[in-house]
Amino acid sequence: MAQKRPYQRCTQCVMDTTDSKIIFDEQGVCDHCRNYEKNIKPYWKPEENRFDELEELAKKIRKSGKGKEYDCILGLSGGADSSYLAYIAKEVMHLRPLVFVVDTGWNLNVAVENIEKIVKGLELDMYTEVVRWKEMADLQLSFFKASISSCDQPQDHAIFAALYNYAVKHKIKYVLTGSNSATEFIRPPVEWIYMNDTVMLKDIHRRFGKVPLKTYPLCGMLKYKILYRFFYGMKRAFPLDYVVYDKEKAMELLHEKYGWTKYENKHYENVFTRFFEGYYLPHKFGFDTRKNVCSTQILTGTMTRDEALKILETSPYDPEQMEMDKEYVAKKMGITAEEFDKIIEQPNKTPADYKNQMWIIKFGVFLSKIFGSENRNLRV
Fold it and tell me: Could you tell me the pTM of the whole model?
């Protein structure tokens, strides 16, 4: 029987052995930090605007959209990254983006209001795709019954799948994303949040679901990385990697110009995600996604390690709010809070307990690292 690994935390960031694949060197520094120092820091210029390169990208996008109503599309959640992306696209790159919003049934009013403020302030057109609630709720409940850590996959997958499917259907070549090196080069380990595996999604729904997925948007990895990219010409662009992206200053700008409102934590514009990251993951699996967010900020110099440790000593969110959220999430999924507690307390499982595409993801990560298209620390 394998012995439990002794607890250890990185001496440079705050990642620890709740990431079971983490590796420490003789100085106690983890492989997340060493990956940053070797593969990201030498090439990433966080205090240098690369406006020439950004303009070259903008020219390509404008050229691809010549004669069309929109030259690109971007997903807007109301969060800081996507809101600042909309600002950069319109005011700095001078593009004609279509704002794409996916209504999964969970957004808080502050997110809806932020979306409205950004769209109105930048005078952009917006399209909203509403995911059929009965399908979404049934799929999310199925994931909880599966007792794995990836219970945000139904929502996460629907958002990007709907965006990519719409872009291809309407022949919009460029999809702009707010994903960026400044705030996301240390990702949650795959075992914390294993996402976007349509094979696993369908298997879990087959076992635990009751409502047929007739309209739920699907877009597997092979579809968007190969079919959409190489056969339909869809391209993803990352404008925030070309500009100095100080998130605090970006949020101040958004607030001053458009009245945008800051959230308590990253991704807390959404009730489900707040409950999932703030309670479900740490309570059931011991996974705290604040660790990778804070570790990124430590390495970029926007937060000290001591500040991060103090944050991690606090609860992800107020216990009273958590209880209200739990009852709300349970009710929306059609069960009682007591039934939900019993489901949550079931023995933990992993994606290996279900059909999955892990081998394809591993192969994709391997190829991405060989060709240099992915330097963030993905270990599967």
Answer: 0.90
